[in-house]
Design a protein that fits this description.
The complex is a heterotrimer of chains A (288), B (337) and C (260).
Chain A lengths: L1 H27 L6 H17 L5 H24 L6 H21 L17 E3 L2 E3 L1 H23 L1 H11 L1 H6 L4 H23 L9 H16 L4 H21 L7 H13 L8 H7 L1
Antiparallel strand pairs in A: 1-2
Chain B lengths: L6 E7 L15 H24 L2 H25 L7 H18 L4 H20 L7 H22 L17 H24 L1 H11 L1 H6 L4 H27 L9 H14 L5 H17 L5 H16 L3 H11 E7 L2
Antiparallel strand pairs in B: 1-2
Chain C lengths: L4 E12 L2 E12 L3 E5 L6 H8 L7 E6 L2 E2 L5 H7 L1 E3 L17 H4 L2 H6 L7 H11 L18 H13 L5 E5 L7 H16 L3 E5 L3 H7 L2 E6 L2 E6 L1 H6 L1 H6 L16
Parallel strand pairs in C: 3-8, 3-9, 6-7, 7-8
Antiparallel strand pairs in C: 1-2, 1-4, 4-5, 9-10
The chains are: A mainly alpha (288), B mainly alpha (337), C alpha/beta (260).
């Protein structure tokens, strides 16, 4: 039973990691390798807002999300504009920017137990003998809500439709008056904001240090690749497969095997079934 | 103001490079110098350099050659459309192979170096052969993940020395041997790969990067060509890894460090991709620079990254292409009439 | 019949996301045949070529080339068996000098086998072939970067790239589109000569007048189905073909053509 519950929590955490990355990639075809760095940077910003400006956590949350979105937006116009459309240069730039942020944070002493974010809810509930604390419930709630909102946003709003237009054919979208750079930068901003949301609900559960950023990137990539990008259902399914895989590996083999699961999954899926487990024809064309 | 003479720059290609790249008519000693200088000067310079350097500077030179080998290996893969973010994978494979053979098999250096080179090439090609079908970004992801995976596996299993690494391995008899071995390998790979990429074989590799479908319809098995390139690039990087193992007498997780993944890419983009000389030049510039940064610890990686981003954004053709063009052109200032 | 069957296509099918691109098309080619394939835009002509040359995997049916089943094989394997094609949108290496574009097929396993391991003069072979295609060897045209050449030259370069493979079956996808009359006139005799020398050719064309001058046989596709096959005159008389082209006044000797 506890495997079921903690597996679910792990899976939803994975979905939270991946949701921003998948959104950005789905809209503008930009594989944002800065994602993990933005995640941990958000935690860093929130901590500083609370400890230097002494803002309450509930005020720091929206500010952090806005700040992260702004950083993503800025990153597009400063770093990515010149290399847009050259997939490999985009990759190198976002990857290097991510590593730079993380190493900078590490250098600035962003590790150890000094930093942590508070939990919002203390008291938990008990489900058939397993106590599940309030923060984990919040994680589940946020995860479910984000996935639903995202689905509605992309399918039923005007800007969401513009996003989907961009995702399908950039040139056609341009010709009907969708500004590709604005959409690109917005997609990055949105992805970064989602990374911040994930950080603010997940970080209170555990360690907050720069190296976590690398793991978040790996998890986000693993979910995106296993699930196939674009489809929300694939993303959710992949999160659960990886989440339960991880929980099972940690329980039955040993906790040090947890991070092996997503890495091995990425390599195996790309080698054996490049379209992802639920991916379709179109994505296969893109990857192969 | 109106009477001011307007000037413009006029550029002319040097006549000797006119139509063909292969046939020269050497008409004057000047032409001979012109043709040979770009080849002879760097060779002489590198060969004489160890005589002038102290022990510490010699180590930097060795390190620069090793990063240069990794950068050229990266460039070879990139020239057939395989973009790697994990040169540390090939490097680590060679390093661990040499370390294992030396420690557990008792093989001496003169045996481990060639064996690790060939073995590393085979292993790299075999590991990545299943994913050569993938397009750029996805291939890059796999190469990024594999070194991390290896690291985690070694850590989780505790094999190959686990977190402590394998120590007290054979080292080179003297610094001279190490320095000259590194320089000779560096120059050999540089000129060898330049020769290769100019040949028809290299032409096919570059064509695969530009349009793989057209190459397939011309009856070329692009997958086997890519695997061949992987073998070659893997062997070069594995040699670098094996070399470093014996240079330090130690092999451990440090081989999977970001330095070995990012520096080669940064060096190649700084120097300019596609001609190997760019990669070589870039590493000769970056490495000494990075030694100044060593004291800064983790910050140096951040600085490499910034250099890399700056190069990708502002210098898409790289330093070498710029220098090459300048070398092959006369530039005169003439009056605009 | 002395000539042997070189290509046999049996009931191949392909649909893209529910849209039927090719439905149960059969045809057969004998050594030395010259088949024209025509049809309105979207009739499935290019899909057919893509399936035969291995770029698209058929959903069903069989393709036999020289008696070997080639459905689902890789494009390079099919090319090495002796089946070459050109592309509707030319696919060339624009950074390379024109003649260097031909080095790539000359490096293929097939050409190496046919030439019996003679190496070293690939550049000469390439320039010779381009000379035949109307790139005069003594001008600087063969040595120019392909990206700097006009469209008609690019089309011919693409054809030369296919011919460099020394194919037994050549498939030309919309070769003449975008070529000037003079360029078409210069290429036509070359194609006729190749066909006379025994090369089997499939030619997909929109310019019917030029096509009918060279082909023996025409196959008409519409909405993925074969609606007629036979000599140019027979085909143009058949009812389904008239219906398919309704609204476009097609005469065999007329000046109309359905341009892409």
């Amino acid at each position: 039973m506890s495997l079921l519950i903690y597996g679910t929590v792990t899976s939803i955490i994975l979905a939270l990691y991946a949701v921003g990355f998948s959104l950005t990639y789905g809209i503008s075809g930009l594989a944002n390798f800065t994602h993990g760095a933005l995640y941990i940077l958000s935690g860093f910003i929130a901590w500083h807002l609370m400890n230097y400006l002494e803002l309450p956590f509930l005020v720091a949350i929206p500010l952090t999300v806005l700040a992260a979105g702004f950083i993503g937006f800025l990153m597009y116009w400063t770093l990515l504009l010149r290399v847009r459309g050259i997939a490999v240069s985009e990759l190198i730039v976002t990857f290097a920017a991510g590593v730079a942020i993380l190493e900078l944070l590490t250098w600035g002493g962003f590790y150890g137990t000094r930093y942590s974010l508070p939990v919002l809810f203390e008291e938990g509930i008990e489900i058939s003998g397993v106590v599940i604390d309030g923060q984990r419930l919040l994680v589940i709630g946020t995860g479910v809500m984000l996935v639903i909102l995202l689905y509605l946003f992309v399918h039923h709003t005007k800007i969401g439709l513009a996003f989907r237009g961009m995702a399908q054919d950039e040139r056609t979208a341009l010709s009907v008056g969708i500004e590709s750079d604005w959409i690109g930068s917005l997609s990055l901003a949105l992805g970064a904001a989602l990374a911040a949301v994930a950080a603010l609900v997940v970080l209170p559960l555990g360690m907050m240090e720069a190296t976590v950023g690398y793991e978040v990137l790996i998890y986000a990539l693993a979910v995106a690749i296993v699930g196939g990008l674009e489809s929300t259902a694939g993303m959710v399914a992949a999160s659960f497969i990886l989440g339960f895989g991880q929980s099972a590996a940690a329980r039955y083999i040993g906790p040090q095997w947890m991070t092996v699961v997503p890495l091995a999954a990425i390599v195996l899926v790309l080698a054996v079934r490049p379209s992802g487990l639920v991916g379709r024809f179109k994505e296969l064309e893109e990857r192969v | 103001m109106t009477s001011q003479v307007q000037l413009r720059k006029r550029r002319l290609d040097r006549g000797i490079k006119a139509r063909t790249d292969s046939v020269f008519v050497i008409a004057a000693p000047n032409d001979l110098i012109y043709v040979l200088a770009p080849r002879v000067v760097p060779i002489l310079f590198l060969m004489l350099l160890p005589l002038l350097l102290s022990g510490y500077e010699g180590k930097i030179l060795v390190h620069a050659c090793v990063i240069g080998l990794l950068a050229m290996s990266w460039d070879l893969l990139a020239s057939c459309g395989l973009f790697s973010l994990g040169q540390s994978l090939f490097f680590g494979v060679g390093a661990y192979l040499a370390g294992t053979m030396n420690k557990y098999g008792g093989a001496p250096i003169w045996l481990t170096l060639p064996l690790a080179t060939i073995g590393g090439g085979v292993l790299s090609a075999a590991l990545l052969a299943p994913v050569v079908r993938l397009r750029g970004v996805y291939f890059a992801m796999v190469t990024l993940m594999l070194p991390l995976l290896f690291r985690k596996l070694i850590e989780a299993w505790g094999i190959l020395g686990g977190t402590h690494g394998i120590s007290s391995l054979s080292v080179f008899p003297s610094d001279w041997v190490a320095e000259y071995l590194a320089i000779i390998a560096f120059l050999g790979v540089l000129f060898g790969l330049r020769k290769l990429i100019e040949s028809d074989y290299g032409l096919v590799l570059k064509a695969i990067r530009d349009d793989d479908r057209a190459v397939m319809s011309a009856g070329i098995n692009i997958y086997s060509r890519k695997v061949q390139a992987l073998f070659l690039a893997g062997a070069i990087a594995s040699f670098a890894g094996a070399f470093m193992t014996h240079h330090f007498g130690f092999v451990g997780f440090s081989v999977f460090a970001w330095d070995y993944a990012i520096l080669p890419v940064a060096a190649t983009t700084l120097g300019g991709p596609g001609a190997f000389a760019g990669a070589a030049l870039g590493s000769m510039i970056l490495l000494p620079l990075s030694e100044f940064l060593r004291a800064m610890g983790g910050l140096r990686i951040a600085i490499y990254c910034c250099i890399l981003i700056a190069c990708v954004i502002t210098l898409p053709e790289g330093l070498f292409s710029f220098l090459e063009r300048k070398y092959h052109q006369f530039e005169t200032v003439v009056e605009v009439k | 019949m002395s000539a042997e069957t070189i290509l046999k296509v049996e009931a191949i099918r392909k649909s893209f996301g529910g849209v039927l691109a090719i439905a149960n098309v059969d045809f057969e080619l004998k050594q030395g045949d010259f088949l024209g394939v025509i049809g309105p835009n979207g009739a499935g002509k290019t899909t057919l070529v893509n399936m035969i040359s291995g770029f698209v995997k058929p959903d069903g049916g069989r393709i036999l080339f020289k008696g070997k089943s080639i459905g689902g094989r890789q494009p390079y394997q099919i090319a090495n068996l002796g089946l070459a094609r050109t592309f509707q949108m030319v696919r060339l290496f624009y950074n390379l000098p024109a003649y260097k574009n031909l080095i790539i097929p000359l490096c293929s396993a097939r050409v190496r086998r046919l030439r019996g391991g003679k190496f070293g003069e690939r550049d000469d072979v390439a320039v010779d072939l381009l000379d035949e295609m109307g790139f005069e060897r003594d001008s600087n045209v063969p040595y120019k970067a392909a990206g700097n050449l006009p469209h008609g030259y690019l089309k011919r370069l693409d054809l030369a790239r296919a011919l460099a493979l020394r194919p037994e079956l050549l498939i030309m996808d919309d070769l003449f589109s975008g070529m000037s009359m003079a360029e078409v006139a210069s290429v036509l005799p070359l194609i006729t000569r190749l066909s006379d020398q025994g090369l089997t050719v499939i030619m997909i064309e929109h310019r019917l007048r030029e096509l009918f001058r060279v082909v023996d046989r025409v196959m008409v596709l519409n909405f993925g189905q074969k609606i007629a096959e036979g000599s140019p005159d027979q085909v143009m008389e058949s009812e389904p073909v008239k219906k398919a082209y309704l609204g476009i006044d097609v005469e065999i000797n007329g000046s109309e053509r359905t341009d892409a």
